[in-house]
Amino acid sequence: MNEATNAPDDGVRDVVVVGAGAAGLNAALLLGRARRRVTVIDAGRPRNAPAAHMHGFLSRDGLPPATLLALGRAEIARYGVRLVQGRVEHIDHGFHVHLVGGPVIEARRVLVATGLRDELPDIPGVRERWGRDLLHCPYCHGYEVRDQPLAVLGTGPGAVHQALLLRQWSDDVAFFPHTLELTAADRERLEARGLRMVEGEIEHLVVEDDRLRGIALTDGRVVPRAAAFLFPRMVPHDELLTGLGCDRDDNGWVVTDRTGRTSVPGVWAAGNVIDPRAQVVTAAGMGSAAAFAINTDLLDEDVDHAVERHRATAAAAGTTGGHGASRGAGR
User: Fold this and answer.
1) How far apart are CA 72 and CA 86, in angstroms?
2) Tens of pLDDT along 307-327?
3) From the centroid of its chain, how far is CA 234?
4) Which pLDDT does position 46 carry in this prediction?
5) Pairing of strands 104-112, 116-119
6) pLDDT tens profile 147-170
7) What is the pLDDT of residues 247-262, one digit of tens each?
8) Are 201 and 217 in contact (CB under 8 A)?
9) Which terminus in the chain has less CB density within 10 A, N or C?
10) Domains of the chain by range and CATH?
11) How confident is the model at residue 51, as a pLDDT?
């Protein structure tokens, strides 16, 4: 069992991974198996903690998210990866990783896999039901609420697409525009898809016996529903990356190549911190791709240093040999 620790690391680490979700743990697993010195730092606040199960992960479908992380921590421990419980305050350009109230860990390379947070609308009941019967991803949870009366809350620009998609799982989907301004084209598409439109602002979620029962509107109506979906505003935990000066796209997200390499040499990123659509299995794959690239980058540096030492040793041997030959010829 890999117990998290707050003790400092001894010596420079090949890689420090910030974040122990699927992306960070999978990267650490591959790097540990490559016999790299790896430290994983985690604040212990996974995005999917409210969810009882995760889906769409081959061989792990239906597994509780916490169980996946526990299995991952145990696996990386077998390969000597060190797990540190804590929050990183900042990383300087020499890759000194500063923990809040804790040690400073020096690394040759850094992988940031800190995920994102879901910014939820201020509607009573939303936070309490989030991840339970108030859901976000149809691919993750749609099958579990199939054929039930569903609601889609119009609290963000992704709500229309979410509602159109959910019709694959239920014939009874009600769309609540709430304060969302719908175009004529949006309304036509929703109606053509067979969604029921419920006009009016949402007041609160109706909960009884610890279950969602309906959506209450400000005009006093209550529309019975068994589960609801909303599209949150996703905000990446990318402060460490932006603090290092990593480039961002027009939408403000840090940009990387296909391996997760950022614009700052030696810095990689993986998972939801750079891709809001990445599911658990996708994030794990991103961590794997980053680990391969990081190890290759380290290998190139190791070889360059070895060549420099080899040349220095050969030059020194040649100089010593030359003096010896000269002295011998003079005798």
Assistant:
1) 18
2) 999 999 999 998 765 554 444
3) 12
4) 85
5) unpaired
6) 999 999 999 889 999 999 999 999
7) 999 999 999 999 999 9
8) yes
9) C
10) 13-118+233-307 (3.50.50.60), 121-230 (3.50.50.60)
11) 85
Output the 3-class SS for the chain: CCCCECCCCCCCEEEEEECCCHHHHHHHHHHHHCCCCEEEEECCCCCCCCCCCCCCCCCCCCCCHHHHHHHHHHHHHCCCCEEEECCEEEECCCCEEEECCCCEEEEEEEEECCCEEEECCCCCCHHHHECCCEECCHHHHCHHHCCCCEEEECCCCCHHHHHHHHCCCCCCEEEECCCCCCCHHHHHHHHHCCCEECCCCEEEEEEECCEEEEEEECCCCEEECCEEEECCEEEECCHHHHHCCCCECCCCCECCCCCCECCCCCEEECHHHCCCCCCHHHHHHHHHHHHHHHHHHHHHHHHHHHHHHHHHHHHHHHHHHHHHHHHHHHC
CB 202 within 8 A of CB 120: no
Residue type, 62: G
